[in-house]
């Protein structure tokens, strides 16, 4: 069986990391897999990139411009929505022709258009689509937040100026997707049970096959190592309890840095002694921008894709925190747990599926900075830290190992090959 994994980026973003890890898991478990990306960044022979980078750039810019106009020339929400009006035709590629299964992942920002997806479906090849967010099940947004319109039909989109309208951009793209899905069957996979539940409520995906398979992680790479050695490698203090926060972009409101800052402020008021005991390490872009906003010593580690640095950062931490306001199945929590680090996060999305409350971390009430502060203090000062660490590793080994995830996807591929392709 030959699988072509299709994802916009090779290394940037959670979907890219998850797609690459799945490719490795499949290849390590008897399935031949390659990955097609918009721009090849490494020498990995299993990765294929598109030619004509100038054309890929033009597609990206054209889509952004069209969205920018519909946002009344505001940058707000410019990257929270996608309309897939420009993209490449990958059906002519040799790798596409050789594949038995086409496995779509995150394909936005000018990589694949709706017309591109239609050509893929018209080829007759079985298509599996892993949803890393809600875009495939909505008109234009990746995260629905509190909006429920996707359950009937998208309109009055909260991401559009003045809340959009009855026939706004979200409604127009919704109708295009509906025509596509009504004609063809796609085997959808979600990374979390939460997203599977959301997808099954979408009126777009009525009649489509939807199943849940988590992301994979290589537990030989992400594993427990000596804490002091990790801190020395990154020049982090040896005499502090260290909290780690990680995000592609630290200032992304959806990742909840504001709630973390608030929680730390509350923690300093209720437990004044922690001011001298705690420090915060921040992994991600723009990590130096929060130093002035928080009372603890802050160690900005910047954004990196270097695996050694990532593993050291997790192993250096006593606690990993991700107060996301909306998230699917964060790779960062999985990576931290694989390294034996207890995690704290809000009860939202797929996070409660990963963090088992007071077993391998702490699940705080949604958007509750006070409970987040309680979770930080409980994990660092009141819990059995060794038990939390052991349980975190056991959770990852049981649910997210390469072998387990590869076996589940192999079963899905076999089902997709016998799945009725056309609905009409």
- The succession of helices and strands, N to C, reads EHEEHHEHEHEHEHEHEEHEHEHEHHH
CATH architecture of the largest domain: 3-Layer(aba) Sandwich
Residue runs with pLDDT of under 50 for 5 or more positions: none
> What number of structural domains do the residues give?
2
Q: How are strands sequenced across the largest beta sheet?
A: 3-2-1-4-5-6-7
The computed structural class is alpha/beta
- From the alpha carbons, calculate the radius of gyration and give it in angstroms: 22 Å
CATH class annotation of the largest domain? Alpha Beta
How many strand segments?
A: 13
Percent of sequence in beta strands: 15-25%
Tell me the major beta sheet: 7 strands, parallel
Shape: globular
Distance between the termini: 27 Å
- The CATH homologous superfamily name of the largest domain equals Glycogen Phosphorylase B
Q: Examine the coordinates and then state which fold CATH places here, giving the name of the CATH topology of the largest domain.
A: Rossmann fold
Task: Explain what the structure shows.
The protein has 14 helices and 13 strands. With 424 residues, it is of the alpha/beta class. It folds into two domains: 2-216 and 402-417, 3-Layer(aba) Sandwich (Rossmann fold), CATH 3.40.50; 227-399, Rossmann fold. α6 (193-201) links the parallel β6 and β7. α7 packs across α9 (307-316), α8 (257-270) packs across α12 and α10 (331-338) crosses α13 (385-399). The model has no long low-confidence stretch (mean pLDDT 93).
